Amino acid sequence: MRAFIAVDLSEELRTKIAEINKDFVGLGLHGAVKFVDVNQAHQTVKFLGDVPEDDVERVKSALAEITKKPFDIELRGVGFFPEALPDRVRTIRVIWVGIGRGAEELKALREDVEWALHDLGFPLEKRFSTHVTLCRVKRPLKSTEIGRIVKMIAELRDIYLGKMHVEELKLKKSTLTPKGPIYEDVYVKRLEE
Length: 193
Fold this sequence. Notes:
The protein has helices at 11-25, 53-64, 103-118, 143-156, and strands at residues 2-8, 33-35, 42-50, 71-81, 94-99, 131-137, 160-166, 168-175, 182-190. The longest helix has 16 residues, at 103-118.
């Protein structure tokens, strides 16, 4: 099963993300970007890839042992990868919303997940970015399109979307389809006070 571990976003934050998506739709980037389904918006904690069915129970058991307390996160600001100064942008691959407050707690949770799964043979990932993907660029952008995107991102750079209380960590199954991935919760680990 293709799987990853994530923190789902609240409905309130997903609604705010949908509003930001409308700003980008208004830029006329027809066919250039593919938006993430806001109903599936999440912060990926660790991508696992293909996990043999026999190992799924071991992953659940490892997640069950994590002892982090619930914490708050705030979504704030829009950016893009690969990062560059506004006047030096040549390509954009991903447009995202950042996580401000709570980012350190999220990184600590991710580190616990990394070590718990490393003991099961999953490789340690060095890079981790606290962000929620809005959309991915599907074709090379024209310089005029890049200019419009960079201008919109500059306007949204400091936008505050809201906060939520993180109480659950989820093991998710990802099924790829022509219309986009379908996510299914396989295991939910409640963070404990």
